[in-house]
Amino acid sequence: MHPNTLLSRFLIGCTCLAAIALISSCSLDADENYDRFFVRTDGADLAVQIDGNLNSNTFILLLHGGPGGSGHEYNVGTAMDMLEEDYAMAYLDQRGQGASQGNYSPTDVTLQAFSDDIHEVVKVIKARYGQDVDVFLMGHSWGGTTGTHALLNTNVQEELNGWIEVGGAHDIPLLYELSVYMFIEVGNQEIAAGQNVDRWTEIVEYCETLDPLNISDGESGELNGMGHEVESLLAYKLGSDDGDYAYTPYFQNPLSNLVAAITNGNTSNLIYEESEEAAMTNRLNEITIPSLLLYGKYDFVCPPGLGESALEEIGTTEKFYVEFEQSAHSPMDNEPFAFVEEVTNFVEQYK
Amino acid sequence: MLNTLLQYALLFFICLCTLASSHSLYAQNQDGPKRVAVPGVKKSTIESAPNSIKQSDKSNSSELKKSFRLGVHAGLANAQHFSWRSNLFKPLRLTVKQKGKRGKSKTVRKEMGVGLDIGGFQHPNNSTAANFHLNLERYKIAHSGIFTHLGLGIGYQRLAHNIPTLELDEDGTLYEFQGGRGGFSPLAFFGFGVASKRSPLRVHMNHRFFLQMPYNTSLAPYYQVELGLSFSLGK
Lengths: 351, 235
Fold this sequence. Notes:
A: alpha/beta, nine-stranded mixed β-sheet, B: mainly beta, eight-stranded antiparallel β-barrel, 59% strand
């Protein structure tokens, strides 16, 4: 046989083998500690990963921050590992973010669409695991915006056992107003204490030029950036997660980083304006399910004053507010044990 | 569904390769002996640079025109996902430039042609992708055998979820199926490699940029880096 023929047959063989490998390669199988699926609704395929104790029949559906985040980035850390021991944590990638896919118009990227998605995912969890399972909704940061919006604009409350808002942004204009006052107050305290005086002086002077009741787009971006920045200035007052927890193996990551970066950015741009105008404090009395509000004392991104005002407004007596003394925007990272204790107590009480 | 489509596509592709190789298209490397010229050559040019040696060599063109190149490539898409691709390239135009100085002759070859890619990648816990592209490709092969390769293409990519897709109907009944979505996929690529002087084998390293659109409200970008081999089909 001519060597060329041999080689060409070899290459064709390689082609076949590669195709077989591609076709037969598989993902992790669902088991009692893991499940992953897409929920198809209104043109979107929403990625949902469930990790933890599925036998508990208690689900905590986590809404990530952003806009432009993913549920996957929350699926790490001591707090989530501990919660997964007792409950099934459902990490949702909201529409147009993370691993979620679809084909829909930019006009379909609205808070109402996010709310409808959340309601649909809750219904799918119940349809898949049983109508008698307990479902709690937990929203962090911008997840507090979509979560609160869903509670107020869908019938999802009927399906839920409780609402947990973690550093949630249910009222963006109020958020910026409180943020400006907090920068000035804490900044002056830090200057008096001789901590990072130069930077705090700049921050305080900048905030004193702002009109807290009329924050522009540029100013809101600046405030948000400073809110994250000062966490490093205040690191000496904050707790940290020093636990030994596992990351998802790199090649098993359900997110394609490049794709997520583009799609997250697009979605963030599309929902930005509506999110910035979201002010739901005056409707919080329509929330009638048990509610737990968890905020960090040094959260400049979503100041704890938001939680305090929500505590007054929410329309149930079964509502609780906890301020973590050594936490900023993510108490689950700053004080994981205290965070888990509060969440567990709440879930055990209302499941 | 995707697996079936992929299998059919693969079968079609293998048939195409077999058909191509069964036409006794004799492949030669650029420095090998010249054989039979095949009718149907559209154009062949032998160009000369200043101070170069002019040399008429029609067999070079026929050699390329009659040969298909089959390539197999493996790599990573978006630096995360195992990818695989097979490529069939049909040269349509050859330019050979022979330069000579002080008694030494060097040949630079340029090949223009069309290529068909069939490939895909596996994104665990998300989707399996299958795609095909029809490309306009260009090789420039230096006398040393080092070549550059670039091209543009258009095609289609389909992502099929490799985890279940769940959907509720209006009655609250839950359906589970294999979801997925496809879309238009423009492509641009460049690469380089080495063409063996003793056999019609080429080693490639390619960088490919392609899109799937629509994806959510806009598009999904992919960057693929891969290594591969290609070989002229023939007896």
